[in-house]
Amino acid sequence: MAGEVLRQRTLSALVLAVPVLFCVAAGRPYFDVMVAVGAAIMVWEWFRLCSSAFPLLEAIAAGISILAALGLTGFDEAGYGLLVLAAGSVLVAALSRGRWWFSAAPFYIGLPSVSLVWLRGDPALGLETVLWLLAVVWMSDIGAYAVGRSIGGPKLAVRLSPKKTWAGLLGAMASAGAAGAATAAVMALASVWPLALVSAGLGAAAQAGDLFESFAKRRFGVKDTSSLIPGHGGLLDRVDALIVVAALTALISVLGGGSMLAWI
Length: 264
What we know:
By secondary structure, this protein is mainly α. The protein has twelve helices and two strands, in the order ααααααααββαααα. The protein has a two-stranded antiparallel sheet. It is globular.
């Protein structure tokens, strides 16, 4: 059974990777459309996760605010896009009478979506930045799974995710760091260590994103956010790590005045 699940997960990942990498390489409008479609799917999954009776009106309000924010970001108005997300969150809170799990959707899904479009829109290093991010997240996931399964040991957060171990976290950080070092080498940066260390930190953040969604699913008694992707569950199950890493990278980039690849 375990071998069959692994085979199914691997095949699904490979099938998904091809269109994702094509859209990343193609840039606008393909990448923006891909992110928008993904955001719409995640909104559906999020509200499906949070309530057995699907709250259609709240989901529509959240979805419209996110798509509007993405449209503004596509026209280099990410700041206004964030304001739209804030307004969307307030509107969803009003419609749902303060159910904060609902009102979190515009930011939990919208903020990383806007971050990805903003990062890819950098004319100098947008492509390299997003490819590096994907490599960090994917390697973090692979490292956590491989090391955690092979070594085992003390659990990381039993209440949130019983299978995750400290060894898996270290494996995630080491693998993400290796992805950063490889990126630095390919880009011929002055030193591989700064990007490797930042990537290792992002690898830890990726695992935190995974833990948060595990917490949300346990909170609502749901195994997967949907059955959209064979072997993985829903899209949110597949990108829970990317959600955190994308938003964090965008924040650091804003504070640093541009893509991290330019000043690390």
